Amino acid sequence: MNKIDYPFVKKLLLNKKNIVITTHKTPDGDALGSSLALWHTLKKNHNVHIIVPNEYPDNLKWLPGNNNVIIYENNKSFADNIITQSDIIFCLDFNKLYRVDTMFDVVANHKCYKIMIDHHEDPDNFCDQVLSNPFISSTAELLYTFLFSLDYKLNKNSATCIYTGIVTDTGSMRYPNVTRHTHLIISELFNFKINHSSIHQNLFDTQNKSRLSLLKVCLENLKLFTNHKAALTFLREKDLIDNSYQKGDTEGFVNMPLSLKNIEFSTLFIEFKDGIKISFRSQGEFNVNLFSQKYFNGGGHKNAAGGFLNTKNIEESIEYFSIVLQKFINEKA
Length: 333
Ligand SMILES: [Mn+2]
What we know:
alpha/beta; inorganic pyrophosphatase (n-terminal core); Diaminopimelate Epimerase, Chain A, domain 1; 6-stranded parallel β-sheet; 6-stranded mixed β-sheet; binds manganese (II) ion
């Protein structure tokens, strides 16, 4: 856990600066919500740009300020120019620089003041100031504290973006890392007349038909490891193609098996062109961060992590999964 030097940052932001806000590859609601909330706040006194590595799901494109988001992949030289002229770079919702993907070199090489606001475990050392706390629900919640501590005032737009970040990273307020403080912040956001019902509708009730078709395949592929209270399901590359997969379609699929009685650990394999991308979720004590670090080349939080296998053989990967799951549980016992 790190603390930020607020008086210093306040001084730093006293006069007009060129500021870049960036976040991780394939931004989610927390990444984009936090970035836009910060953009809405700083743009009054600074020259501010949001640059994200690549495209993000359509259900985030209604966010106020969305049209100002620059996609690095599609505007490389334009974005490089902005980054190399920046005085400050804010790194939101990630703590390892590789997560900005193709932006890595330009961000790493540009010597300017860097500020990280993030809630993942084990931050790397590439920022001058770090506000990092893995016990906080979302980067958006941390950002609220950051802005509050610097005496910035929110408005309806920034409050809407912060609400989006908290809601999407907490499974609509249900995960264990939601606290009384999280709810106090939400209550403050209501002072700015946010429309929580329409935010939820925009986020969750605007799905593509391809999503439901892929969900059908996922449910058909569901495997239960009842001895270990675990579930696994998968999608093949062919399923993605046959059902006209669009980015974001599989968001949340990995959580669904957790709604079963006596299932506390869920895994989703998705076969892409260079291997199998994996999502892990758990409820309670099963530490998916450790499990993924150990056996699946990934990591994340205790109850939510990602991983990767450099193969396209789903059957072999499921076999491997069941072996290492047994091993992992034996080691813990
Ligand atoms: Mn987050």
